[in-house]
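Dear colleagues,

As part of the handover before I leave the project, I'm documenting each prediction I ran so the next person doesn't have to rerun anything. This entry is a single chain, and its sequence is reproduced below.
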Amino acid sequence: MKAMSKTIKRWRLHLWSGKTLTDLAQSTNKQVQGWINYYGRFYPSVLTRFLARIDEYLMRWAMQKYKRLRKHRMRARAFLAGVKTREPNLFAHWRPVVQANNRMMGAV
């Protein structure tokens, strides 16, 4: 958990305001998908709380990129929720995963 947190901090997603959401997704999806594959099987409850942190960094990214979202956390959260409903497969941690027992898992 600590190593994954350090990795996300090292990415510094909130400072990539010159990039698009698609660019962010392309650069992070492989690593996040690996975490989901491994930790989703053994520690799913811890993983879902951890993946919510990535959304917090994405919210901070949106607040840096768009003037209308600066100092408005709720607007930034609503913006990400809208993107999540329009493009649920953009980020690996947004994709719903169906397990063998037909239960949903993986999407935060």
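The first helix runs from residue 2 to 11. The chain is about 65% helix and 5% strand.

All the best with the project,
I.
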